[in-house]
Amino acid sequence: LYGAKRFEEAAVEYRQLVNRIPDNLPFVFQLTRCYIEMQRFQEAEEVLARSVEFGKNSHVFWQLYGDVLSK
Predict the structure, then answer these.
(1) DSSP code of residue 68
(2) What's the 3-state SS for 3-62?
(3) Is residue 5 left, alpha or beta, with left meaning phi > 0 and alpha meaning psi from -120 to 50?
(4) Which of 2, 28, 36, 51 could form a disulfide with 10 if both were Cys (CB 3.0 to 4.6 A apart)?
(5) What predicted TM-score, i.e. pTM, was given to this entire model?
(6) pLDDT tens digit string along 12-70?
(7) Rounded to an integer, what distance in angstroms lies between the CA atom of residue 34 and that of residue 43?
(8) Which residues contact 14 (CB under 8 A, 6 or more apart)?
(9) 11 vs 34: CA distance, rounded Å
(10) Per-residue pLDDT tens over the stretch 50-62
């Protein structure tokens, strides 16, 4: 869905996945990217803020977090 630019639908799917498996960073990243594409930056930041414990050692996590905060 993300690749098809169906960001709203993809966000719903990724939100469910993140709720079930909160430490899965690829799901967190994709949900965050969906929100960025929809310019829902506050929601993107909230997703990342809840995932700091899981992403704290990932440079990709911090790069994405920085991108969100700069919006």
Answers:
(1) H
(2) CCCCHHHHHHHHHHHHHHCCCCHHHHHHHHHHHHHCCCHHHHHHHHHHCHHHHCCCHHHH
(3) left
(4) 2
(5) 0.89
(6) 999 999 999 999 999 999 999 999 999 999 999 999 999 999 999 999 999 999 999 99
(7) 10
(8) 2, 27, 30, 31, 34
(9) 6
(10) 999 999 999 999 9
